[in-house]
Here is the input.
Amino acid sequence: MLIHFGVILSELDSNKINKIFKIERSVDMVKDMTVGNPTKLILSFSLPLLVGNIFQQLYNMVDALIVGRFVGVKSLAAVGSTGSLAFLVLGFIIGLTSGFSVLAAQRFGAKDEDGLRHSVAMSIYLCAAFTIIITLLSVLTSKSLLLLMKTPADILDDANTYIIIIYMGCIVAFIYNMLAGILRALGDSRTPLYFLIIASILNVILDIAFVVNFNMGVAGAAYATVISQGVSGLLCFIYIKKKFPILKFQKKDWKFNSNTAKHLLKIGLPMSFQFSITAIGVMILQSAINSFGSTVVAAFTAASKVEPLATMPLASLGVTMATYTGQNLGAGKYERIKDGVKKCMIISLIASLIGSALVFLFGRYFVNLFLSEPQEEVINYATKYLNTIALFFFPLGILFIFRNTLQGLGDGLIPLLGGVIELVSRSVIALVFSGIFGYAAVCYASPLSWITAAPWLYICYRIRAKKLIDSET
Here is the structure.
């Protein structure tokens, strides 16, 4: 290796030498997913994502846990009733920034460093514009949406207070998700994890300080979440600036290019709308839940905090496939994409079985953590929901894999249509059948929406994959 470098250095001038060392230092920080064993790459990339997603979930989970234990069940219900509203906006942000990072992954896979930097610069411009628009719209419409969702009167004010503070923090959500997406596009899934761990610990400390010590109620929990995510975004920014010379911008990188902006929006907007469409379905489901009263709302809130802990491995595998697919598409390795999908499905099946077992065995005990004292009615409602969805984790895993693979291929419209299928299915079941079958319809609404959307994504992926393989031969 040293001899190899010596020959190269002896034949290049100093500028080229500096460029080589820049690239070498960059490569140390990233993971090239276009070479090596797909199974090992998928696992090594997704495991840090999994841990990171768990810590990400701790933001809202800790809010609910501390509010439920130290303020009361109604305050727990207030925080929980805003979950779909938060997802409506934050899901849009996550989808948009994830879409922007797909282009970065493709250009990194193609070894186009100038194109990579320019795509990141354009992403920053677009995120700044969307931050202003989304913050204003969400704050102005929050209470109207809560009323539209039939939020119980006894928790309405607290729910509105909590969600407005979360919405005011849209800027930090944009910063963190955009920067974390860039890091993952370059194959670095570990660094966002480290910063999430720091932020999650800070969130716990601030929750205890604001809610327990300063008696700030649901507002304290919201402030803790926003401040903590702001810290994680700041750490990502400092790290990228210091450790990634491949992202050292030049003046030309910041020149606005409408074609690049359109390309980013072509990928990002369908992904963001897909998240928002899913969120609208959850809002409709939440409105059905709200009609059963604050006890059922509290039960569903507790259950919805436990659910992601079991499904996080599936979501992490999906995010991994977006980066894996994007890089290999940029490198023109289409057969390798198909092989990676097969390996990921096997891993997803195993993760689904483990998640289902954990929910059946320990779900009831996790729910109890959110209650200051055991309330059998709340626990029974929550357990019924968890045991129902646990039967359908594998279809959810399939949905994640093919949705993100298609997004990695640059196909935003197909996953968006999959989101529409989910929305229609979830809405029909929640609105129509809840009046006939009661709470049972609520429990089956999400699983049946996964089952109806997954086949569409699978069929579209097979068609897209075949075209790619044919074009290669």
Q: What stands out?
A: Residues 1-29 have pLDDT under 50 and may be disordered. Residues 104 and 116 are 5 Å apart (CA to CA).
